[in-house]
């Protein structure tokens, strides 16, 4: 009843695999509630998470613990008492940051509580030593002072105070002895945890060496397989090139066969044409005669064309001369028309004045 939650969030809970000390084992199938609890009576802090009726986290926070962020949404801490490592996966980086900040606050509060308890223990031991030294002198002073009535009247309250102080010291010593036993148990637990962690570290180192050897073998095998793949790819490329060359040769052969057939067709045509060569020769002679006659006619026509060109040049010259004369005549006519317009305007002016 003295333990109250001071911070609550939701996360996926994981624990380190006890056999390998490396792989994470999910402690919950889904996100569960993870809370910080403060025990008023014991002045201690715990992280508690419950999945249904199963307690999956019950970790008392000590000043030696450290919460480590391993990614943007995942953090972990080691609990030597539970001999395990807890991991929490959050839905956002902000939740992880808040949880880590709260862990640091609680860790600092646990450290202050431990320091205060140590100071109380030292103070209680100092008080017990001082009271043990002062009690004889107080009894001597009481025996010296006056009668028994005076002793009863003066010494009684001091004895009561000493008894209460002694009772308090006894309680403090009992608590300190219990704390010493608890610390011894915790020290023994830490030693055992250290021994287990050392053994696990040695096993991990051996496993690492074995994994390094296996990795080296795997790399060699991988290199060998890659070389084999490169050789096979080269062979496949060579085969593909041979196929392409064969395809090209087949196409070339088909083209040559087609050309051979065309040449044979042309040869047959030439043979047929050779049969009509005499007729063509006679026709060629006839055409030559006609060509000579046409050339003579062409020469006569060329002479006529030259004479026509001369006539055309003369007619062009006469046209240019006529254009010049017509232009000068038009200029004179325009001057006459302008004079008539001026004369008409004068007559119109005279008519208007009269």
TrEMBL record:
The gene is HOMER2. Residues 123-146 have a biased composition (Polar residues). Residues 110-163 are annotated as: Disordered. It is found in: Cytoplasm; Postsynaptic density. InterPro entries: Homer, Homer_EVH1, PH-like_dom_sf, WH1/EVH1_dom. Residues 180-318 form a coiled coil. CDD domains: EVH1_Homer_Vesl. It comes from Acinonyx jubatus. This is Homer protein homolog 2 isoform X3. Keywords: Coiled coil, Cytoplasm, Synapse.
């Amino acid at each position: 009843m003295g333990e109250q939650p001071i911070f609550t969030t939701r996360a996926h809970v994981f624990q380190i695999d006890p056999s390998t000390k490396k792989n994470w084992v999910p402690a919950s199938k889904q996100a569960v509630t993870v809370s910080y609890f403060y025990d008023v009576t014991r002045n201690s802090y715990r992280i508690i998470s419950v999945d249904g009726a199963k307690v999956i986290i019950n970790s008392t926070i000590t000043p030696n613990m450290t919460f480590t962020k391993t990614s943007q949404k995942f953090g972990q801490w080691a609990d030597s008492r539970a001999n395990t490592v807890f991991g929490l996966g959050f839905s956002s980086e902000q939740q992880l940051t808040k949880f880590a900040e709260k862990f640091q606050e609680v860790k600092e509060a646990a450290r202050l509580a431990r320091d205060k308890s140590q100071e109380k223990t030292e103070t209680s031991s100092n008080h017990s030593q001082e009271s043990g030294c002062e009690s004889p002198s107080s009894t001597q002073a009481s025996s010296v002072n006056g009668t028994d009535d005076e002793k009863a009247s003066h010494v009684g309250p001091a004895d009561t105070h000493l008894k209460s102080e002694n009772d308090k010291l006894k309680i403090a010593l009992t608590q300190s002895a219990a704390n010493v036993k608890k610390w011894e148990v915790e020290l023994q637990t830490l030693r055992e945890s250290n021994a287990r962690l050392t053994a696990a570290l040695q096993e991990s180192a051996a496993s690492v060496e074995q994994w390094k050897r296996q990795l080296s073998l795997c790399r060699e095998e991988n290199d060998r397989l890659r070389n084999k793949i490169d050789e096979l790819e080269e062979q496949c490329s060579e085969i593909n090139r041979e196929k392409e060359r064969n395809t090209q040769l087949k196409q070339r052969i088909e083209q040559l066969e087609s050309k051979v057939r065309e040449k044979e067709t042309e040869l047959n045509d030439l043979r047929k044409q050779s049969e009509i060569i005499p007729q063509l020769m006679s026709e060629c002679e006839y055409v030559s005669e006609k060509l000579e006659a046409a050339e003579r006619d062409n020469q006569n026509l060329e002479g006529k064309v030259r004479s026509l060109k001369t006539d055309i040049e003369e007619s062009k010259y006469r046209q240019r001369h006529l254009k010049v004369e017509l232009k000068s005549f038009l200029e004179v006519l325009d001057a006459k028309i302008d004079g008539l317009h001026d004369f008409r305007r004068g007559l119109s002016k005279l008519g208007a004045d009269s």
